Amino acid sequence: MNSNVENVNDLLYKRNQYHHLVDSLPFVDTVPADLEHVIKDLVNDEMKLILEESGLSESQLLDRYLDPLPFNFTPNGCLYNKEIDRINNGAEMEKLDFSRYSPISSHKDFKTKMNRIKMLMEYSHDSLINLELMDRYKEGSWLKHLDSLTLLKLSMEKRKKDLDSKLNELNKRRKLSQIDTANQLRSINQEYEEYKLRLVH
């Protein structure tokens, strides 16, 4: 059907005042010039029905469609909301308290000092264990991670291929349906013209 259009600037959808705001394909593709008035009448009828149903003018309806989506923020005490509150209030992020990881140098309670030292020893021991585990299993863990990424990539590629196939099939059916409809409209219009000629003669 596009071969019947001589100039791309004559596309019907570009004659719409707000065509640049539409981010999806128009349902009506480019049609021959002899069917433009039919399509325009259908579109105008649909626009009238939409305006009557909404009870608004065209500009008011467009403004309502372009309103930002409402977002009701309800704090519930979760960590995310607390962090959002901190950012909105301009407060600084709480820094890590490294003092708890340093030994007590001046404390009169000997038991408290010993408990702190034991805690630091446990932290150090855990750190050494983590380093040993990482050194022993790093290659195997990384290879497993790469395998999981490869499987994820293959799965996403298969999903994309399936979606592309479905999209192409949908576009083909849509195009064939529009071509068939255009042919029917052209045939009906031709019969109408022939009928008018017979009435004249």
From TrEMBL:
Keywords: Coiled coil, mRNA processing, mRNA splicing, Nucleus, Spliceosome
Cited InterPro entries: SPF27
Stretches assigned to coiled coil: 153-180
Cross-referenced Pfam families: BCAS2
Coiled coil listed as a keyword: yes
CC terms in the record's Gene Ontology section: catalytic step 2 spliceosome; precatalytic spliceosome; Prp19 complex
Compartments where found: Nucleus
GO process annotations (BP): mRNA processing; RNA splicing
Family: Belongs to the SPF27 family.
Protein name: Pre-mRNA-splicing factor SPF27
